[in-house]
Amino acid sequence: MLTLVPTPIGNIADISLRTIDVFSQADIILCEDTRITKKLLMLLSERYGLHVKEPRFISLHSHNEKDFIEKLEPSFFEQNIVYASDAGMPGVSDPGQTLVSYCIENKIEYDVLPGANAVLTAFVASGFVTTQMFFYGFLPHKGSDRNSALEEALFNGYTTVLYESPHRLMKLLDALHVSTPTRQIFLAKELSKKYQHYYRGSAQELIEQLKGVIKGEWVVVIEAGEVHRSSISEADILGFDLPKKIASKLIAKITGENPKACYKRLINNEIK
User: Listing from the earlier edge strand, what are the strands of the sheet with 197-201?
Assistant: First the structure.
């Protein structure tokens, strides 16, 4: 049997009794980083009396997941197999879904325990009343892929939740200020940890608040806006040999972005 277990995203007290019980019966523990999971089990042993039966630890992360699954045999799951990501819910911007898919295809029993999750925690903490949510995970790091993804995040009609690294957070806020200067943004820093902090305001207001404090893990929640959909993407338009002013007008037409802001963004990307 396979059991996917969520682990605390910061505060170890968020561990569930069911997760402790599953860990105690595990024969094999699959984990993103064996060092992190072993440290978690040590802390659980010290604070909550967790007793494990010396399970075998196997590293399973995004870089080796495909090869690992291809080599699996259904008999592997005749033992108690546990999968735990480094923090939060497996399968949410972490491995896990491929394991579940394998179990379904091979009629293997599996279970997923509920628990700590940064996406839902930040969504509720944002206070945005739109109940429909769009989770994007991490945006592409740069280029037209990032721009297209940001457009989708901004103009899908839902409250959108993103993960962002500290060294790209200010770049994201700059882009949000250009594209939707009046849209409300909610930032959650270091959820459930000692230095947890919430910020909310326009992109420009957040830029002013965050001078000198860009550290830690961040969840970004963007207030729902108008829906702009088109079968033609920004990448499609940029694929043509068009002057930047014309390209910016076409992109603005399909996304709702301010044409001048779009032109400025294209020029800045070209310089970079």
Answer: 133-138, 159-164, 218-222, 185-189, 197-201
